[in-house]
């Protein structure tokens, strides 16, 4: 799969009657040819099913790389919000109020919250969005892709990331006495039983209540169980365990589920360095996006060292995929670089930040951070530095002109 929410999007297909090919990655052809795209939007393909998602990832990735996004790109994202606080995948006409025909979803909403919270200055927008997310929490503590849909690991995880981004404690957000972590634990496979899927997270139970290991859901579940979001940071030191160890001993809490999930991912990438696609007809084909998510999950749980094999594989093999897939793919690779302490401007010889920036409106500036964490503009700063320089130059030119003029005048007056 090319984007992390593919599993959730495919679940929505059955729920809202959308054909599966249309809910694909950013690289999928437009179902209506070449649509006229908003100038503030990242990516060149039809945004109908992933506009808010890819925009949110792009803005968040730029922020983590020290880039200040274009104002119109941020405005486009905030303009997609409905009056009730929710976001849909894409609204072509934002002048019309959202009605029952606008299919809002938790994934787009939670991704937008993570991006806007990171950028800062959007408290009203994120506050309304989080209030809406809380209002559609399921009785098991989790979230489905759309309001009222059965909870799944991916949707619950992206919402956990949104809650954390705005300073909420996920364990305190409850419905019917259940928190998001209670829901995630219900999707976690034990270490006993199927050795291949031991410790993994399932996307959601099947009709018989059976859990099946899902690598995409596992990567999401590990990060969420650690209380982090899309742009997760690496664990310090040796992390909270890792390697390929899976254990049912001790307390069956989020920390244990995260460690077990990371153990599953470590085994899955141990042989070849990448995860394989589960899409029909994609036998033994690498899943670049899921592998990038696995890098983030492994680093968040066990530290950057535990993610080196899949990271190195991505550095060697992901260029063509990212170029075809667009901004969300570049963002996922930026997140993988961030989680492992890798320079996103030299990712296997590729400048991911430059490539990402090129998929949308030019960013305002690059932002540098001092030792105290304060931000300062390294260049650009809306042109202020340029105007100061120009003003100083003008003063110098005038002063020199006056001096030359006085000199010439003195010479004329000399006898």
Automatic annotation (TrEMBL):
Residue ranges annotated as transmembrane are: 385-404
**What is the superkingdom listed in this entry's lineage?**
Bacteria
Name of the molecule in the record: Terpene cyclase/mutase family protein
CDD domains documented for this protein:
ISOPREN_C2_like (cd00688)
Higher taxonomy: Bacteria, Bacillati, Actinomycetota, Actinomycetes, Kitasatosporales
Keywords recorded for this protein, A-Z: Membrane, Signal, Transmembrane, Transmembrane helix
Using the record, list the residue span of the signal peptide; answer none if the entry has no such feature. Answer: 1-24
């Amino acid at each position: 799969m090319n984007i992390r929410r593919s599993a959730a999007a495919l679940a929505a297909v059955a729920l809202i009657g959308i054909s599966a090919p249309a809910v694909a990655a950013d690289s999928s052809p437009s179902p209506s040819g070449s649509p006229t795209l908003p100038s503030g939007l990242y990516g060149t393909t039809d945004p109908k099913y992933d506009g808010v998602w890819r925009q949110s990832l792009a803005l968040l990735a730029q922020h983590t790389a020290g880039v200040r996004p274009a104002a119109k790109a941020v405005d486009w994202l905030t303009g997609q919000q409905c009056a009730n606080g929710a976001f849909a995948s894409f609204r072509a006409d934002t002048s019309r109020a959202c009605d029952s025909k606008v299919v809002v979803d938790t994934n787009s909403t939670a991704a937008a919250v993570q991006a806007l919270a990171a950028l800062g200055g959007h408290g009203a927008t994120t506050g309304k969005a989080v209030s809406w997310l809380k209002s559609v929490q399921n009785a098991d503590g989790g979230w489905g892709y759309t309001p009222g849909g059965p909870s799944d690991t991916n949707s619950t995880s992206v919402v956990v990331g949104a809650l954390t981004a705005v300073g909420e404690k996920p364990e305190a957000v409850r419905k019917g006495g259940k928190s998001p972590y209670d829901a995630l634990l219900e999707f976690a496979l034990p270490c006993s039983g199927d050795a291949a899927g031991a410790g993994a997270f399932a996307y959601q139970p099947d009709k018989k209540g059976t859990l099946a290991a899902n690598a995409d859901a596992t990567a999401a579940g590990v990060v969420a169980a650690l209380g982090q979001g899309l742009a997760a940071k690496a664990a310090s030191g040796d992390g909270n365990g890792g390697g390929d160890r899976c254990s049912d001993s001790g307390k069956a809490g989020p920390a244990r589920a995260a460690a077990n999930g990371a153990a599953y991912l470590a085994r899955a990438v141990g042989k070849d360095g990448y995860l394989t696609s589960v899409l029909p007809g994609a036998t033994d084909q690498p899943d670049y996006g899921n592998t990038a998510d696995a890098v983030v999950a492994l680093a968040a749980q066990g530290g950057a060292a535990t993610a080196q094999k899949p990271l190195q594989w991505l550095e060697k093999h992901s260029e063509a995929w990212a170029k075809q897939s667009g901004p969300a793919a570049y963002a996922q690779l930026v997140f993988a670089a961030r989680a492992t302490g890798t320079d996103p401007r030299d990712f296997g010889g590729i400048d991911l930040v430059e490539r990402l920036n090129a998929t949308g409106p030019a960013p305002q500036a690059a932002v540098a951070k001092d030792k105290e964490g304060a931000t300062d503009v390294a260049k650009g700063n809306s042109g202020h530095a340029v105007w100061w320089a120009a003003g100083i130059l003008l003063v110098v030119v005038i002063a020199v002109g006056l001096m030359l003029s006085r000199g010439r005048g003195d010479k004329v007056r000399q006898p």
